[in-house]
Amino acid sequence: MFCDPLNAAMAEFDINTSARQAAFLAQIAHESGQLRYVKEIASGAAYDTGRLAARLGNTPEADGDGQKYKGRGLIQITGKNNYRDASRALFGDDRLLIDPALLEETENACRSAAWFWHSNGLNELADEGNFERITRSINGGLNGQQDRVAYYARANQTMGVTA
Fold it and tell me: Cα separation of 73 and 156, whole Å?
């Protein structure tokens, strides 16, 4: 189900070396629960008010923006700003602001993850082998880092990537 769309998305966004692919696949394995989830399990209420909401481009009132723009896609795109930027990059319009659930469709889940990866300079960090900084760029911290590193080690071994 994900193989062809993931390969196409990686090709589209220059995730085109074994080192880049291993790091990308490890991160999406963690973010998506091994490709089981394309929508964040949490309600999104944490993104609905305060400084975090404002940083993500959500309105600072408890009006549902947090729930509407909670994590989706294989890398869990979060927040109105990211949805708008992804929509314009992937579709040339604001359709994800109107229908955020489009990121739950397989092709869009893959493309949005690869777009986020590319647009945040993560190919270059993968080239450097800077996996911790990749995690911080995706997650804002090191949440689940042990899990991510285990996936990374497995991907590197499978793909023949040596440090």
Answer: 23
The closest of 65, 66, 62 to 44, measured between CA atoms, is 66
Helix 106-119 to helix 80-91 angle, to the nearest 10 degrees? Answer: 100
Q: Quick count: other Cβ atoms within 10 Å of Cβ 40?
A: 18
- Over the stretch 101-119, which tens digit does the pLDDT of each residue have? 999 999 999 999 999 999 9
Q: What length is written for the chain?
A: 163
* Tens-digit pLDDT profile for residues 36-65: 999 999 999 989 888 888 889 998 778 889
CATH label, 3-159, candidates 3.30.70.1400, 3.30.1050.10, 1.10.530.10, 3.40.50.300: 1.10.530.10
List C-alpha distances in Å: 140 to 5, 7, 63, 115.
26, 26, 24, 17
Residues assigned a catalytic role: 31
The token duo for 81 is 């700003």
